[in-house]
Amino acid sequence: MKKPELNNKDHVKLARFAKALSHPTRLFILKFLSCCESCYTGNIVNELPIAQSSVSQHLKELKEAGLIDGTIETPKVYYCINKKNWELAKKMFAKFF
Amino acid sequence: MKKPELNNKDHVKLARFAKALSHPTRLFILKFLSCCESCYTGNIVNELPIAQSSVSQHLKELKEAGLIDGTIETPKVYYCINKKNWELAKKMFAKFF
DNA sequence: AATATTAATCGTATATTTGCGATGAACTAT
DNA sequence: ATAGTTCATCGCAAATATACGATTAATATT
């Protein structure tokens, strides 16, 4: 097997995905989005014991990591899994192990 | 699909693994351990541009997450992948996606 | 125009992470 | 005994993460 490189681009990308997955609340949100029809921020907030602003922060992080997308349907925001990056992350984790 | 639970034990465990994987240096170390014969701390330090104390810190985190084991062979310390937990993490990530 | 709804963002507090150099512990070799 | 090797830990600084209440922005309703 070949020697790994530091700051290998894949490692940076994978680390980014891993970071997004590194908090139980975010794992919960991802699972929730992957199984429910109503995926507005409010629906997620209702399922969690933390403040709306905190949920919003977690959603922002998942969005910045590319794992979810948000669509404004004023005054609500609809969230869903970004399937392309979800598959990419899945593949990258599978490849890593 | 059933509704996810907050603080689901699997989520806490998976988040722990994800956190261990959330830094490029740690991904590098894991890859290095999984492909090299000489896996003493010094070998790893030599491959990285960061201080020995920082590497030691990353090794500690990987160890606490259960992904690696360290064996003292004074004055060196030999590190290797903890295969049981490695497989467990692999399965948990695969199941999650 | 005034009010209500929804969700992001701001400001703040606290905790954790990351990195470093210096030091210490456990030996080995001279 | 002294010096050298290897690696963990300490103490510190800076950056980042987590959570909260309050505020703001965008829009719909009355």
Number of helices of chain A: 5
Instruction: Please state the average pLDDT score of chain A.
Output: 92
CATH superfamily grouping of chain A: Winged helix-like DNA-binding domain superfamily/Winged helix DNA-binding domain
Kindly estimate the percentage of residues of chain A that lie in beta strands according to DSSP.
5-15%
Overall tally of domains of chain A: 1
Characterize the overall form of chain A: elongated
- Name the structural class of chain A: alpha+beta
The separation of the N and C termini of chain A measures 14 Å
Instruction: Kindly provide the radius of gyration of chain A, computed on alpha-carbon positions and rounded to a whole number of angstroms.
Output: 15 Å
Examine the coordinates and then state which fold CATH places here, giving the name of the CATH topology of chain A: Arc Repressor Mutant, subunit A
The biggest chain-chain interface is:
A-B, 37 and 37 residues
CATH class of chain A: Mainly Alpha
What is the CATH architecture term of chain A? Orthogonal Bundle
Strand ordering within the main sheet of chain A: 1-2
Q: What oligomeric state best describes the polypeptide chains here? A: homodimer
Helicity of chain A, in percent? 55-70%
Low-confidence stretches of chain A: none
Return the string of H and E elements of chain A.
HHHHEEH
